[in-house]
Amino acid sequence: MSPEVPAAVPSAADRAHPGRLVSLEGGDGAGKTTQRDLLGAWLTDLGHEVVLTREPGGTALGQVLRDAVLHGEDVDPRTEALLYATDRAHHVHSLVRPALARGAVVVTDRYLDSSVAYQGAARSLGDEEIRDLSLWATRGLLPDLTVLLDLDPAIAAARRTGAPDRLERESLDFHARVREHFLALAAAEPDRFLVLDAAAAPQEIHAAVRARLAPLLPAPASAAGSSGTAR
């Protein structure tokens, strides 16, 4: 049985900003950072101001929180969820909303759907509770487009390099629950989500993202454009 997910609650006020917010979701090793960087180059070539960022860790404070939640001592699921929500609140307030107000296109490697899938579903904290926490933290800001890069967890694990972080060390069963819930979230909000096979070639995936995103873009800020990156 597919897990139940709450319906989208978009805010009219949050659709009034001139910029666009694109989130990239999926398991670790699905290629989110690669697609973020490809999008950044394409959007810059089109003349948009582009802000490339990530969660957690898109700000100086966020990097401290990232180190704590992914590489620090073990924490209980509720503390983990609150650390992610703290990062998201600061990230949106200090970086994302100002960029959207300028008319920039913000592309983030992970956003609130990761918390719903990882902490809400796989950690069994409740997807409604975790979604509501993130919506409160961000004052209701939802992406204009969420790209879900879907990949078998075993393949994703084989792609990863370096020492695994706390979430990457979780079992394949844990990551299978994450994947199942990501797909359920996408099925519940087809107008916001684009689901792509992350096993495809990066340029093939990038072309599909461009095709879906192009009609949603605002007019470019300038012919030359500019690009900012938070890593």
TrEMBL record:
GO terms assigned for molecular function: ATP binding; dTMP kinase activity
Residue stretches of biased makeup (Low complexity): 1-13
Keyword Iron-sulfur on entry: no
PROSITE patterns tied to this protein: THYMIDYLATE_KINASE
Annotated segments matching region Disordered: 1-29
The enzyme's E.C. designation: 2.7.4.9
Residue intervals of the Thymidylate kinase-like domain: 24-208
Residues where ATP binds: 26-33
Alphabetically ordered keywords of this record: ATP-binding, Kinase, Nucleotide biosynthesis, Nucleotide-binding, Transferase
InterPro entries: P-loop_NTPase, Thymidylate_kin-like_dom, Thymidylate_kin_CS, Thymidylate_kinase
Pfam families, A to Z: Thymidylate_kin
Catalytic activity: dTMP + ATP = dTDP + ADP
Any single biological process term in GO: dUDP biosynthetic process
A GO cellular component annotation in the UniProt record: cytosol
Keyword ATP-binding in annotation: yes
Functional description taken from the UniProt entry: Phosphorylation of dTMP to form dTDP in both de novo and salvage pathways of dTTP synthesis.
Protein family: Belongs to the thymidylate kinase family.
PANTHER family according to UniProt: THYMIDYLATE KINASE (PTHR10344), UMP-CMP KINASE 2, MITOCHONDRIAL (PTHR10344:SF4)
Name of the protein this chain belongs to: Thymidylate kinase
